[in-house]
Amino acid sequence: MTTSTLRPNTVSKTAVSGATVSAFRVVVSFLFVCHALQGFGMFGGIDGAGTAVSFGMWPGWYASVLELVGGAFVLLGIHTRPAAVVCSGVMAYAYFTVHQQLALLPLQNMGEPAALYSWIFLLIAVLGPGSYTVATVLRRRK
Questions:
Q1: Between the CA of residue 15 and those of 11, 21, 32, 135, what are the distances in Å?
Q2: Burial class of residue 94 (count of CB atoms within 10 Å of its CB; 0-12, 13-18, 19+)
Q3: How many CB atoms lie within 10 A of CB 6?
Q4: How far apart are CA 60 and CA 124, in angstroms?
Q5: Is residue 12 over pLDDT 70?
Q6: Which of 21, 64, 121, 141 to pair with 30, CA 20 to 30 A apart?
Q7: Percent of the chain predicted with pLDDT > 90
Q8: Which of 34, 25, 20 is nearest to 122 (CA)?
Q9: Contact 136, 77 (CB under 8 A)
Q10: pTM for the full model?
Q11: What's the pLDDT band for 1 if we cut at 50, 70, 90?
Q12: Closest Cα partner for 74 from 64, 86, 90, 63?
């Protein structure tokens, strides 16, 4: 007997994991887009008082743009793997250039979000976007 005859109403493990990865991708990238918008003065800005990074200021303004565009691509599931690699790299750069010089450990140097986002986006780049993406919808329409 096969597994499907024993449990005819079950959902396949692949379908569940694809949906789980999609949900994970959407939640993480939504939070990341909100993080990016702080660089433009939204959600309290970079100082909690609505201050935005000055236009063209290196690296903050460019990081905010990369975070916003990359996070939106990952959120929608469009070019997810390369966008996730870019987001991971932006956060690794932030960790090593801003946080690491303050103290050794992420807990000490306030770099936990940067370290976590870097590893999470690397995981998304490896796993892919999951089952539910805008790219899938567009592909099915053709």
A1: 7, 10, 26, 17
A2: buried
A3: 8
A4: 24
A5: no
A6: 141
A7: 68
A8: 25
A9: yes
A10: 0.84
A11: very low
A12: 86
pLDDT at 9: 53
CA–CA–CA angle 115, 74, 106 (5° rounding): 5
The residue written with tokens 């932030």 in the block is 94
CA neighbor of 111 nearest in space, from 94, 126, 127? 94
Nearest to 124 by CA among 65, 72, 83, 64: 83
Dihedrals φ, ψ of 50, to 5°? 90, 10
Closest CA to 31 of 113, 137, 130: 113
Torsion, Cα of 29, 34, 37, 41 (10° steps): -170
β-partners of residue 51 are 45
